[in-house]
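Support reply, case 0932

Customer input (verbatim):
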Amino acid sequence: MAVSNYCPPCRTYELSMEQNPIHARMCGFGDKDRRPMDPPPIVRLMVREADGTPVDLNVPGNVDISQCMVMAELFTVDQQQPCSLVANPATTTVIPATPHVRTIGDSTMSILHLAVPPPISIRNLTGSTGASGDLLKDLTGNYGIFFAFPDLSVRTDGMYTLKFSFIMLPDSPLVPSPVLATVFSAPFEIFHAKRFPGMIKSTPLSKMLFDQGVRIPLRKETRVGRNRALVQSEPEGAKQESGEVEDIEDMDGKET
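Our regenerated output:
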């Protein structure tokens, strides 16, 4: 957790992880394939006055929520190296195994063409990597400034962490926005499709924010595998006859 001072108004801003992602299925390199992190990352912003007193969020206008934004970046588990880009395998040129034969004078030479264009790099972290702040109640009924990231996906499998950076949007787009606070998530794993253990039941915090208007997809059941039965949250008699049916509320509150 990192804290930064910003003047004016000489306040201190601090980010904390209210909900860490645990895992996800890799989304690959398709344009429309999305495999969101489970559960969705949720970040909270704490604002303090210069003397360290927390700003009273119950007073309207104490914090201009419309200017608050948090950006997400993908990093290695040790938090040292960004993993923002990955080579798109569709743009990788395969070197032919058969060399080109050229005759020069009395000599015949085998030449292997090595002038291969480099593959094109694309974003490894997909989805909405920036989130605006919302003034919402937490599980204890207290107000907080929350940033939810419900549709982040990663193209390649492996162990990662997320770095979140808080900025205040300036009044003019020509004015730079310094990073005022940062925080890293706990490590999480992105699985290959065949190894993914399944999505978990939605957390109480996800449900709490959903009920207050945040577009977080809710899952009423725990999916333990594409070809396995579901561990259901409803009573035994309420289970579906088919063990492969998911009961999910989408971000508009409808069941699919």
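We compared this against your earlier run and they match. Two observations from our side: The two ends are 38 Å apart (CA to CA). DSSP finds one helix and 21 strands in the chain. Please reopen the case if you see a mismatch on your end.
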